[in-house]
Design brief:
Largest sheet: 9 strands, mixed
Number of helices: 6
Radius of gyration: 27 Å
Number of domains: 2
Structural class: alpha+beta
Order of helices and strands: EEEEEEEEEEEEEEHHEEEHHHH
Helix content: 25-40%
Amino acid sequence: MASTLRQEFFLGVLPAGLRFSITQAKVYCNPGGYNVSWRDTTNFNVSNMDGRCFNSGMQFAPLEPARHPGKTCIMSTNFSATMPTSGQPVRLGEMTWARANTLDIFAQEVPGSVELKFQISKQSGTALAAGTLKVTPTRFKTFERPDNIDIVLTWDDGRTENTKTTIGADIGVDPPKVHLMFVPGQGQNALGATLTQKEDVLNAIASVAVRGIIYANKKVVEFGVPGGAVVIKVVEIPETIDTVRDVVDAGNDFVTALREGNRAAALLAAGKIVKGVYDVGSGLKDLPGDIKGINGEINNILLGKLPKDIGELPEAIRDDIIGKVVDDALKLEEDRQAQAKLRRRQMRARRYRMYE
């Protein structure tokens, strides 16, 4: 007899510094005796039991009036996830479909669907892109569960990405896990998405990581894996994605500017570093790669001199504080170079006296 069907979802790839959030769960149930539900890993859940809506055991009214045959249960939520520095996929939750009465052999329709609204934002809270993930199995059969589950990711601009999981005939064996993968496009002003059930695809894309950052260039889009190439559809986003790589590059620029005594360049690089640290992560300890950077100089001569709440201060005050720290760093570098020059001169003098 057909039993409960369960589909798990994971966040498989997301650039460091970005946050994936589920903001709403919409659970639709067709008439005929079906139960449909969504549960995330915080135990937030929305269940539609043959048209009756429940959230953590508390009943609430469905969207449609009583006379409407199908019913929709909608609940706002705020579930967020980021990728750990290990790069291991993060479990988001699971959807389930079942016959309310397992002995009802006449319940042979599509049970219903689960639709999740999601948003991708910076750690600072700035929203970059949004969309929906809709998941619908095919119909139940007399003694079997549905054959497939259709999964469609739709960006708010209408672009779609889809996949289909195959359901084994064995009762109790769940379909393959689905991984959501998000990668920045060229120029960092686009964000792409793809869905996969295959670990080899997930590993292939993750292997293109550079200090925790994935770049959606031709190597990724055309990356050949068993069963075909990975296809990534992108959407334009309102601003550039700040990445760990940006912070590392700014660190190199900062140290070079100090060595050259270039205050304007040092100020520009310092601003990028500070912005990046607070947009990309909640602090140095959360960022992959050697962000303490260049033998610890970035941390010692810039970040370590700034107040802990620098990211929360008004821009004018923040710029003034950064300017003073940069001036001190330039003075220290100037003194260091003068001392090094003096030592070299003294060494030459000693060598000259020894020669005499």
